[in-house]
C-alpha cells in the first residue's frame, strides 16, 4: 500500500479517535478542589514567667590548710634530754603536751651562780651598813679630839701673847690641831662615799637578780610545750642531740580549725556583693572594704569533698579576703574557716579535713526575688514572648543575676507572660505561634541550682 494512502486510511482515523477519547475524559472529569491560602502557625515551647527566690551562689576550689601552725623553735641551746614518744609525723597531741626538754644541768648551774652573787652582794651591802656605823662612831671620837686640839691652840695663843710660850711650841700645837682636822675630814669623806657605794651595791644586786630571772626563764624555756591541740607535720630532733638556739625541732598543724582559700572570679564575687538587698552600686576595690563588705553579706559557706559518687560536706564560716586581687588572673581570694575540722569526722563515716585536701566551696548570699527564666531564653539582651493572639513579640530584658542555667529579672518581665524558649527561624516579629507549654524545665533548673 502506498504511504499516502496508508496515512489517510489508517493513521488519521486512529488519531481522531484518540483525540475524541481524550476530550471526553477531560469533559467528564471532576475538577480539583480549591483551598484558600492561610497563615501557618509555628510550633514553639513556652513557659509561664513566675517569680522565685534564688540565692546568689559562688562555687570555688581550694586546698585545705590548718588555720594555725606551731613551730617548735628552741629559745635556748642545749642537749636534748627528753622527747615526747608521740612526737611522730601524723600523731595528734593535746594542748599542754611536752614536746621536748633540754638537759637542766647548765641552767641550774647558772641559777646557783646568780643566787651566790646575790648573797655576796647582799653581804657587801650589810658590810657597808656596819662600816657606816663604825665610821660614825669614829667621827664622834675624832670630833671630840678636835675640840681638845682647838682648846689647846687657844691656850697656846694666849701664852704666846703673854710671852710665856715659844713660837716653836705654839706651832707644834697648831700642827697637831690641823692633823686632827684632817682625820675628821677623812672620816667624813668616807661617810660621804657610803651612800654611793650602797647605791652601786643595790644596783649590783638588781643585776644579779636579773641574771637569776634570766637563768630561771632559760630553765623554763628548756621545755617546749604545745600551746594547742595539733597534729605533727614534721620533726627533726632526737634524745642526745644538741639543739642550737633558734633551731626548729618540729612543725605541728592545729586541728581545731582549718582554712580554705577560694580563688573566685571578680564577676562571680560581684554577683554576691551587688545583688544583696540595699546593696552597693559599685564594687569596692580596697581589700579592707572588701572584707567589711564580705562580713555584711552573712554568707553561708559549705565545704564539699568528693569521694567518687559520694559528696561529704562541712559547714564553714567566711572569714576574710586573703591578700587582695591577683593582678594576673583577676581573681580574689576568699578565706573560709571550718571549726572542729577533726572533731566532725564522726564515727569513721568520713575522714577529717586534713592539710592538702582539694575541696570545692559553695558560698550563698541571702535569696533575692524575681522572674526566673532559663538562661537560654535570653538572646542578645532580648526575650521572646507570645502575646494574647499567639503572636511573637520581642522585649528587651536586662538580667539582675545570671547563675548557671538560669537568669533572674527584676522588673523588665511581667509575671504570667508566656516566654518562648524556641523561637521560629527566621525570627519575625508578629509571627503566628503554636505554643506548647513546658511544665518541667523550671523545676529541673531550680533543682540543679539548689544542688550545685
Automatic annotation (TrEMBL):
Signal peptide: none annotated. Keywords: Coiled coil, Membrane, Transmembrane, Transmembrane helix. The chain crosses the membrane at residues 7-26. Residues 111-156 form a coiled coil. The keyword Transmembrane helix applies. This is HlyD family efflux transporter periplasmic adaptor subunit. It comes from Aliiroseovarius zhejiangensis. The lineage of its organism: Bacteria, Pseudomonadati, Pseudomonadota, Alphaproteobacteria, Rhodobacterales.
